[in-house]
Design brief:
about 350 residues, alpha+beta, Elastase, domain 1, 2 domains, 11 helices
Length: about 350
């Protein structure tokens, strides 16, 4: 399963630019869009989870990282430039990828007792400098791959820790639940990556729920872009409003759910609805998102109860069941989960 951070609707918008100023941007977006389309069929198919439901270990294995350099080519993994325990090499992309892999591993190991992405100590590999002016980052089912951006709209994709956490979370979902990458199941898949990507960043920065930005992809835009990030979990639909990129199209409740056949049924657009639900739970409970809210979502993801084609309603009921099991039916945690889904108009 290959999952990328930049939505096809954003790439299509960039590919349609006809101003001479954006010639290189349009070409880069077209190439990135073709790459996304080339793997669309593989992305849509659910994968069978291979990790036992709810697997936790008291002492997960230490992180084992390797970073490779594609040298602007597309052969993976590329040339090994830094492996576990070695010092920084002075290449920002390689060093950011190395650090981001470590921060992601730390969240899962220290908070959730998970032994790497697959629950079995999987080595974490990443390739940087993929292709030329490549406007994306993706998880290809085995490793992370990062483009350098076009330099006009996007910076290098290793700059955002939430992006690294997001993409690696697709691996956790792949090995834990095998959610189909289409329609509402696909939007849940994307939302889970945003949820855990945000928690990776918050855990690394030791940010409370109140202090966190709840932005996914903050720092990816070049300074001239009118926007703060790719998505806002707290306020879906407000992350950017730019002459070139257009306006963030994410809905914040089922009242504005987008019905479309594009982007595998709107997986990147409609993920704003479950994103906001998680954020509402975290805000209601206060403290740190990786504590009660994160535990509820992690148990839901890894507990073995989610069918591959889960709808928002099925997922909402599963989170409520996890909250009830972990904290009790009369708990503040269970109440917060139920209220959050009611607020975004998803039926429990």
């Amino acid at each position: 399963m290959i999952c990328s951070i930049i939505p096809p609707y954003m790439l299509r918008r960039l590919a349609a630019q006809d101003s001479p100023r954006y010639t290189a941007v349009a070409r880069a977006a077209k190439e990135a869009l073709l790459h996304v389309k080339s793997v669309q069929a593989a992305r849509a198919a659910p994968s069978a989870p291979v990790t036992a439901p709810g697997m936790r270990q008291l002492q997960p294995a230490p992180v084992n990282r390797s970073v490779f350099d594609a040298k602007s080519g597309e052969s993976l993994p590329g040339q090994l430039v830094r492996k576990e325990g070695e010092a920084a090499i002075g290449d920002p992309a390689a060093d950011e990828a190395y650090d981001g892999l470590g921060s992601t591993h730390s969240l899962y190991a220290e908070v959730f007792g998970r032994n790497s992405i697959d629950g079995r100590g999987m080595p974490l590999n990443a390739t940087v400098h993929f292709s030329k002016l490549y406007d994306n980052a993706f998880w290809d089912g085995q490793q992370m791959v990062f483009g350098d951006g076009d330099g006009e709209i996007f910076e290098r994709f290793t700059r955002s820790l939430s992006v690294i956490g997001h993409e690696l979370a697709h691996g956790v979902t792949q090995y834990s639940a095998g959610l189909a990458y289409r329609n509402q199941a696909g939007a849940i898949n994307e939302s889970l990556s945003d949820v855990f990507g945000a928690m990776v960043e918050q855990y690394f920065r030791k940010q409370s729920t109140a202090d966190a930005s709840w932005l996914i992809g903050e720092g990816l835009f070049m300074p001239q872009v009118e926007g703060s990030a790719l998505r806002s979990m707290k306020a879906p639909g407000t992350a950017y409003d730019d002459d070139v990129l257009g306006k963030d199209p994410q809905p914040d409740s089922m009242d504005s759910y987008v019905r479309t056949s594009a982007d595998n049924g709107g997986v990147h657009i409609n993920s704003g609805i479950p994103n906001r639900a998680f954020c509402l739970v975290a805000q209601a409970l206060g403290g740190n998102a990786w504590e009660a809210p994160g535990q509820i979502w992690y148990e839901t993801l890894t507990g073995g109860s989610l069918p591959p084609t889960a709808t928002f309603s099925v997922f909402a009921k599963a989170t409520a069941a996890s909250a009830r099991e972990l904290f009790g039916a009369e708990s503040a945690e269970h109440d917060a989960v139920r209220l959050a889904w009611e607020t975004v108009k998803v039926k429990l």
